[in-house]
TrEMBL record:
Phylogenetic lineage: Bacteria, Bacillati, Actinomycetota, Actinomycetes, Streptosporangiales
Catalytic activity: D-mannitol 1-phosphate + NAD(+) = beta-D-fructose 6-phosphate + NADH + H(+)
Source organism per UniProt: Nonomuraea cypriaca
The keyword RNA-binding is assigned to this record: no
Keyword tags: NAD, Oxidoreductase
InterPro entries named among the record's database cross-references: 6-PGluconate_DH-like_C_sf, 6PGD_dom2, Mannitol_DH, Mannitol_DH/Oxidoreductase, Mannitol_DH_C, Mannitol_DH_CS, Mannitol_DH_N, NAD(P)-bd_dom_sf
Protein name, as recorded: Mannitol-1-phosphate 5-dehydrogenase
GO molecular function: mannitol-1-phosphate 5-dehydrogenase activity
One Pfam family per UniProt: Mannitol_dh_C
Keyword NAD set for record: yes
Domain of life: Bacteria
Family: Belongs to the mannitol dehydrogenase family.
């Protein structure tokens, strides 16, 4: 079987061929993993197809390895996306840079008008190169020197106020003259992105080859659902993403909180309490599904506002349906990674909101206890703070809670000192240590704790 490329596109059914063929590279993307290829790249191709404007080809940049470049370059950067039963080759990516390639030159090119990022929560660090933020600042410096015009830089990662967060980190690495130029020429709109994209497996690649009739080593598998909410604040021209289904709004924050807390918070609950290998398997457990509903309804939904006219109940039902989709094979281990970077915005911020209102965030506390049990007992812990998180698995629940609550960059000083939160997490960890997650959830499903 031959490899996917522009030379072999004729072997693919016309309905599955790319919607657009960009002639110019107008977007640079940092962190060209599976999520970007299933989300922003798809929206960008649809925008070009809707308008005929072919200036928005994407140059992706890998941050840590040559894997994506090695997969996509021999395919002329084409790759297939399977969303449910629909399969289509996407053609919006024109090039992929490997680490060490000249990213600054791409960022300084006058035809580049937009930079997008999916570098995960732990990518937002206050370090100089070779981090993604450091490479971005180097590119901005080159663009200012070339007088190449305005630029819009869009974080598509799961961070609260991701636009302002990115702008702040960039500012910290800029010298005064560059900072002045950035203030005049660069915008950092906030966004909310939503699409479940599991890591691609060998079985996925085999399935894609069978469906397309060609070998595709860059294929991604996702769900039919996709959402993109973007703050309408751009420095210059942009793809017509609104023509492709994106929502441009004045304030992204209500949508951002909704997604971070309900979808991502629900994912964290699955990661640390379900005991399942895949998300859909967790939803097959009635006791766990009942717990997830209580978490969403009792602890998370009351912390959301600014969604007038939006059907929150319908959104939560759609999440439960999406989680139960057996076709995604979303690995729980993938979600469990980097928990110290994810918990604050997903669960700890809503816990603060509930405590401030005089309520006990009991269900949130149980998920936090599950995370504490996970970091204490896991043989392999994938987390930037792994060395500080690991501890004595035989310690009492109270001792473990005391030790982990003291990590201020995760819990802050407020939650460390909050007696209600400490007591709830300790009680949850005692239950989990004594009975395990399954029995604990079954007991909760039978009645209040």
């Amino acid at each position: 079987m031959v490899r996917l490329s522009r030379a072999t596109l004729s072997r693919i059914a016309p309905a599955a061929r790319p919607l657009a063929e960009p002639r110019v590279t107008g977007v640079v993307h940092l962190g060209i993993g599976a999520f970007h290829r299933a989300h922003q790249a798809v929206y960008t191709e649809r925008a070009m197809a809707a308008t005929g404007d072919d200036r928005w080809g994407i140059c992706g940049a890998s941050q840590r390895s040559t894997d994506v470049a090695d997969r996509l370059r021999p395919q002329d950067c084409l790759y297939g996306v399977r969303a449910g039963d629909e399969v289509r080759v996407v053609g919006s990516v024109r090039d992929v840079l490997a680490p060490g390639d000249d990213l600054a030159a791409r960022l300084a090119a006058p035809e580049t008008a937009v930079v997008t990022l999916t570098i995960t929560e732990k990518g937002y660090r206050r370090d100089p190169p070779p981090t993604a933020i450091g490479r971005l600042v180097s590119g901005l410096r080159a663009r200012a020197a070339a007088d190449a015009g305005p630029l819009t830089v869009i974080s598509c990662d799961n961070l609260p106020d991701n636009g302002a967060t990115l702008a702040g980190l960039v500012a910290e690495l800029c010298e005064p003259a560059l900072l002045e130029w950035v203030g005049q020429n660069v915008r950092f709109p906030a966004t909310m992105v939503d699409r479940i994209v599991p890591a691609t497996t060998r079985a996925d690649l085999d399935d894609m080859a069978a469906r397309l009739g060609v070998i595709d080593l860059g294929a991604v598998v996702t769900e039919p659902f996709a959402q993109w909410v973007i703050e309408d604040s751009f420095a210059g021209e942009r793809p017509a993403w609104d023509r492709a289904g994106a929502l441009l709004v004045g304030d992204v924050r209500p949508y951002e909180r909704m997604k971070l807390r309900l979808l991502n918070g629900g994912h964290s609950a699955i990661a640390y309490l379900s005991g399942a290998a895949h998300v859909s398997e967790a939803m097959g457990d009635a006791a766990f599904a009942g717990f997830l509903r209580r978490l969403m309804d009792d602890d998370l939904s009351p912390t959301l506002d600014g969604l007038e006219g939006f059907d929150l109940a319908e959104y939560k039902e759609s999440l439960l349906t999406r989680f139960a989709n057996p076709g995604l094979r979303h690995r729980v281990a993938q979600i469990a990674a980097d928990g110290s970077q994810k918990l604050p915005q997903r669960l700890l911020d809503p816990a603060r909101d509930r405590l401030a209102g005089g309520h006990e965030p009991r269900w949130i506390a149980l998920v936090v206890a599950g995370w504490m049990r996970h970091v204490t007992t896991s043989r392999e812990l994938d987390d930037p703070l792994a060395g500080r998180l690991r501890g004595d698995a035989t310690a009492t629940a109270a001792a473990t809670v005391n030790r982990l609550l003291a990590i201020e960059e995760v819990f802050g000083a407020d939650l460390r000192e909050n007696r209600v939160f400490r007591a709830l997490v300790t009680d949850g960890l005692e239950r989990l240590n004594a009975d395990g997650a399954a029995a604990t959830l079954r007991a909760l499903d039978a009645g209040p704790p």
